[in-house]
Amino acid sequence: MMQAQESLTLEDVAVDFTWEEWQL
């Protein structure tokens, strides 16, 4: 359960980072 949540968080962060870079 914890591992699954961690994976989701990592993907969420990666998506947020990509969007920020694109906006830049």
From TrEMBL:
Entries under SUPFAM superfamilies matching the protein: KRAB domain (Kruppel-associated box) (SSF109640)
Pfam family of the protein (one): KRAB
Lineage top rank: taxon: Eukaryota
Signal peptide extent: none
Transmembrane region(s): none
GO biological process: regulation of DNA-templated transcription
Residues of the KRAB domain: 8-24
Protein name: Zinc finger protein 615 isoform 2
UniProt organism field: Macaca mulatta
